[in-house]
Specification:
3 helices, Trypsin_dom, globular, 6-stranded antiparallel beta sheet
Length: 167
């Protein structure tokens, strides 16, 4: 994986554990496949366009709960769940600043070691955007239990202030 334009990590104040890395784009290279990810957060009007559509998460985390970390960057296509489905899957609170994604049948999910990684979706104009950040989950790849992501659109104002020259 190659990262271009990485500058600094800026932490959000107010108790939120959100760190924003300023960058122009991310090039994920896997074999002969290259995907340019434009790190342009979608505005809130795009939220409804991503629900029930597939997004990609990538990382070097475990491939099974309790397993070893991956030596290679892996990616998996997973559907973004409706918020009500996400809330129903957990006894823990799921906030409006969260979104959930994973295979409904299990087996495809982010896992330990993937935290902080992206949940990428392709916009209707063909550009890729980071809609979520891997946050937490219970086990990995369990049927009916999605991974929980920080919803990027919930932090657009803060991102905009801290990335004025890159977004």
């Amino acid at each position: 994986m190659t990262v271009r334009g990485l500058r600094q990590c800026i932490f959000k104040s107010g108790g939120k554990r959100v760190c924003f890395y300023r960058l122009h784009y991310l090039l994920i290279s896997r074999g002969h496949v290259q995907r340019f990810v434009y790190v342009i957060p979608s505005d809130s009007t795009f939220d409804f366009l991503f629900i029930l559509r597939f997004a990609y998460t990538a990382g070097w985390g475990q491939t099974v709960f309790g397993g070893q970390l991956s030596d290679v960057l892996l990616e998996v296509a997973i559907p973004i769940w409706e918020h009500d489905q996400c809330v129903a899957a957990f006894s823990q609170p799921i906030f409006k600043t969260n979104l959930c994604a994973a295979s409904y049948e299990g087996g495809k999910d982010s896992c330990l070691g993937d935290s902080g990684g992206p949940l990428l979706a392709q916009r209707q104009d063909g550009k890729w955007t980071n809609v979520g950040i891997v946050s937490w989950g219970i086990s990995c790849g369990e049927p009916g239990i999605p991974g929980v992501y920080t919803k990027v659109t919930s932090f657009l104002k803060w991102i905009s202030v801290n990335a004025q020259d890159t977004v």
